[in-house]
Amino acid sequence: MEFTRFDHDQASDAEFDEVARFLASMDAADRPGWSSRSATALADFLKNRQSFGYDVSLWLGSEASGGAERLTASCWLNLALSPENRQTVLVEIRVRPDLRRRGIASDFLRALTPMIRVAERDHVIGSTTSHGPGELWGASVGMKPTLRYVRQVLRLGDADQSLWDRPVPDGYRFEDWTDRTPDRLVASYAVALQAMDDAVSGDLQWSQPRWTPERVRETEERLAATGNAARVVAAVDEASGEVAGLTQIAVSATRPEVVEQLDTSVRREHRGRGLGLAMKAAQLRAIAERPGLERVKTDTADLVHMAAINRALGFQDESEDVYIEADLAEIEAALATDS
């Protein structure tokens, strides 16, 4: 069994097609109905791998079979770039369903640990299906569950759009933009982003960014340079003229069929007035007009409040997942014992 980094700069179209089909086959097995990346979208994602605050790489497992190489496993390896999480790497190892429970995932992780050391990361976070085989495997390599969350999807073809008819709460107006926050709002927009500090985080060792107007601009410029976009709906307090809350979606230039819900946050002093539901409904009314759009994806660890808001807008639960994590030294010790 060999584990190598997928060289997207040198890969041919045929190789991208093969890898995209392989990843889609595992999505079909583990996340039926989930939207997989096409070969073109995969190439774009890897080309712009630092768009969303991570240095992303794709690693593949393969073995000889009948005189040819066949793919057996994959790993997304994401190095966090934010100063608050520079010690952390995110990993998602997946093995072909017919090859599971043979130690491939452990061998894969063992092969990656030297590279993680070289990258000067000492904390590892993974994700897998909650209470499933992946969580049990995580325990065998020293990783503990720290935060459970639900993946949800809205299929526009089946959506009841009347669920999006939500009024703007009294005392607020909604503004929306793509890519660049208006200068007059950027300072209070940064404050509203910081309200994510209150998001449900369980025992997850992950820190929210320290948002400033300058950091907002840096993030916007990095995303715009990739050809992708972030669309924002913000609730503005009429009395103060400041952003009270916001909801964001990511729009990919090469995946017109799907958009991904990012953060939704409301400043503490404005909570309890229905802003979250109303902002997300306004966002859906706007993006539903996008040509070719089929799905909106999201996930949330707020299994009570935010998950219920999403369901009220027509989202359906796709899977219940969990973050598992450990210090790299703990993983190395567990793998040494297992070898």
From TrEMBL:
Residues 191-338 form the N-acetyltransferase domain. Keywords: Transferase. The keyword Thylakoid does not apply. One of its GO terms (molecular function) is acyltransferase activity, transferring groups other than amino-acyl groups. Transmembrane segments: none annotated. It comes from the Bacteria. The keyword Transit peptide does not apply. This is GCN5-related N-acetyltransferase.
